[in-house]
Structures are given as structure tokens and as C-alpha cells.
Amino acid sequence: MKVTLENVLPSEIERRSFEIITQELGDRELDPEQAPVIKRVIHTSADFEYADTLCFSEHVIEKALDAIRNGASIVTDTQMGRSGINKKCLAGYGGQVYCFMGDEDVAEAARKNGTTRAAASIDKAARMDGPLIFAVGNAPTALVRLYELIQDGVLSPALVIGVPVGFVNVVQSKELIMKTDVPYIVARGRKGGSNVAAAVCNALLYMLDETRGMGNGQEQRQT
Amino acid sequence: MKVTLENVLPSEIERRSFEIITQELGDRELDPEQAPVIKRVIHTSADFEYADTLCFSEHVIEKALDAIRNGASIVTDTQMGRSGINKKCLAGYGGQVYCFMGDEDVAEAARKNGTTRAAASIDKAARMDGPLIFAVGNAPTALVRLYELIQDGVLSPALVIGVPVGFVNVVQSKELIMKTDVPYIVARGRKGGSNVAAAVCNALLYMLDETRGMGNGQEQRQT
Q: A167, B21: Cβ pair inside 8 Å?
């Protein structure tokens, strides 16, 4: 048995999806620099609420693309986020994707200091060299620890993607990040997730790729 | 600088989140067997729409738990989904989690047959022995291929978790699965994703764990 549905070539599905998203956003005026990020988050979630909730600090897209061009690495708080980010594309600029959540020294530090592993993994990342992008899709405690280290002058991230999802301290942790003067992209409210974190990273990567004429992808499919 | 927010111990965050979800669902009567799945999907997405859109075939929870107890493996269409499923917990019952999307033979078969890799990876799974649960969080073409193989009598999954997200053929592919007589859990409409697929799997696993007195987890944190 062979089923035929809407006749769209596999390679065309993403382009067609973005057309539909653009169409359904209608007259809504998106900042042209922010639009690719907003649309890719909607693409990965089918949730148009993100057009209202995504918050961008001033000139953040320009700053984020510069950081990637300069070889920034991405630190994320979940293996799911790590799976979803296009690592090959990032490697083309010299960066790597790290998730320290499963590391033994992080578990040990968390136990010792009575923190979450997510907070301890931020401490570990703070000891790294080079420009860093933090993509937080799960743990508000990671955002809170980032806020503390930023306010103490210990850490100066090139970008904080603050999109944890959840019901306890999530909303507040995002508001904290928006009080700092570091570049941020934050999904205000409860919604977010590893998929959203990966989508924001990939949107940035593909914005650079377009100027390099490279292909596109779908974050959920990356290995 | 040390920030103090809502005072909830890390180990208590998930329990507290489920309390909030239960509270906000209010008077809504959920089927007690389905409730843990619905709540965990809301937990992973902060999206209460899933209380309306998740569809369950008759006795699906009972059948799904039986399949896991009998050592069913899970085949998923993304590495993100694979990352999110609690593999250690599944292994306790004898099952494994597979994602064939990156396999060379799948890429080759897709090229040869002019299909997506997602469809080709279902064909590969169809040659496996033992009970299988399919957790589709991304590719409607995987669901369509499942439908074709089910209708042809080639494949008889123990459970189909049909939760792809997107704008092209996603809605239709889910409706197709609900026309079959295999056990299914489907998120009707456009919404879903790898995180939702993992959440459904983990909800089922933790339902069994409760009876075994094992701990709980958060799918986004699994490695």
C-alpha cells in the first residue's frame, strides 16, 4: 500500500514549512534580523506563541554571529540539546558543542556544594578559554548560576540563550538574565526546551551559512 | 553573588512541577491511566494544549506497559529523541533504544528508493525481531511508512507514539495512524517533537518504575 499526501519533495519540506509559517504570521512585523530565529523556533515547536515571547537584547544577532565567526563554542545543559545542534556547521567556524551534565567531576562538585549538576556544569564551563555561548533549554539553576557569575564579573558570555522550560523558578531565572548586560535571547515565560535551544543555535548557524551558500537542516534530525 | 528563588530542593523540583500541573488542570477529568503521560508531556513543554490533543487508542497504556515488561525495544526517528529516553530504565526490562537515521545503509536505501531517510529507517526496523515501540517525534514520512507496512500486514508494532511536529503532512500522517488497529498514542494536530516523544516513553517507563519503587527523572536531562 502506498499513501500519497501533499506532494512535497523531502528536500523541499523545510522551505515549504517556512513559507507556511511566514504566511500565518501574516502582517506581523518581525525584525528582519530576528525573524530567522523566531521562525525556526516556531518550526521546531509549531507554537506561534514564540513570536510574542522571544526577547532579544540590543544587536544580539550581530554579536552572536560575530562570536560564532570568531570560533565560539556552545555549552548546553542537556544531551538532547547537544544532539540537536548542528555540530558540523559550528565546527566549520572552529567551535564545538559541550554538555557537562554527565561528567563525574560535575556530579562530585554538585554533591559537595549542594547545588544542581546544571549549576556545577556552568562553573566548569566558566573555567574554559575562548568565547562561549550558553544554550540553556532545561535547567533554571543553570541560568541562575550564569547570572551570579556574570554579576560577580567572573564570566562574560558572548551570548546566553535562556530558554528553559518548566514550572519552578523558570520564569524568574529568565527575567534575571534579561537584567544583565550580556547579549541574550530569552523565551519569556514557562515555555522553551532543549529543542528550542537547539533551534536558536541552528538559526544563527544557518544565517551565517546562507552567506556562505551552504545547505540547511532541521535541528531534530541532527546527530 | 547568591540568588535565592522559590525554595525547592533540586530533588523536589519535578514533584512540585507535577503538583502545579495537576492544580492548573483543575477540574478536568483525565483518565487515570492516561494522566501520567499527559502530565509528563505538559511538564516537558509547559503547553497545556496537550491535555486536549493527546489521543489514546483503547487500553493502550496497559498494552504499552505489557510490551515494555516483555522487553520491547524503542525505535525513534531522531538522535534527540534517543538522547531523551531513559535508556537505563528501559534496559532494566531488556529493551534498547534505536535510531537508524544516521546509518549508512539507511542513507543508501533512501537514495535508491527516492524516499526520506526516516521512511528507510522504518523499513530497517521492520526487519528486527521482538516487540517494537515506534516513537516518531519528527518525520511524518516515518508515520506514513509505518501506516503502509501495518496495512500491508508486514509490521505489527506493539505501540506507535505518533508525535511529529510540523507543517507539511504532519496532521495527516497522525490521522492515518489513528485509522489502524495498532495501539497508539498520538498528539493530534501540528504540535509534538522529539521532546514529546521522549516524554511519552519516559512516562510509560516511570509508571512501571513506580510499582518497582525506582526513582524518577526528567527526559531532557537523560544522557
A: yes
